[in-house]
Amino acid sequence: PWISPSHWSGYPDQWAAPNWNQQRDVNNLIDVAWACIDLNSSVLSSMSVYRMRYGQIIDSVPWMSNPDPTIYASWREFAKQLFWDYQMGEAFVLPMAHGSDGYPIRFRVIPPWLVNVELREGRREYKVGSMDVTSEILHIRYQGTTTDAHGHGPLEAAGDKAVTIGLLQRYTQNLAQTGGVPMYWLG
Q: Which ranges of the chain have pLDDT less than 50?
């Protein structure tokens, strides 16, 4: 059983009835958030990549068309994955090969759940499995602080609110089922 909202007896007939389906509203918000992240990632990944020196565009390098041909079809696929992770809170990029000049010539986005980040003596240390990649990895945080090892995305705040809403809905349901008498109290 669930508390079912109904019209107030004095509710004017010409007013539109509110939409009382809260779970559907939460699902719609999740769908909208997913669509926004996907759209932002798609738009950003379609932007051209170029290098500049002294205000002039200079020659491109192979990674600008595809940073790792062994797993990506194009720059766009790499960039969409990068921007998606970034909007969720943090993105990690790891070089896979270096050129003779020491600069990366192949690199890929590493899923955040694979990277263990810890603060030690005021600096971040990174491991992928048991491999220490601290000196190699690029960590791009959406929002971060000097006291937290991880980045945080804009949807994290919404997650806490959704959990709170669910708890309050269950509490209200239980209170209604007991006729307004709480099941527990402090004495």
A: 1
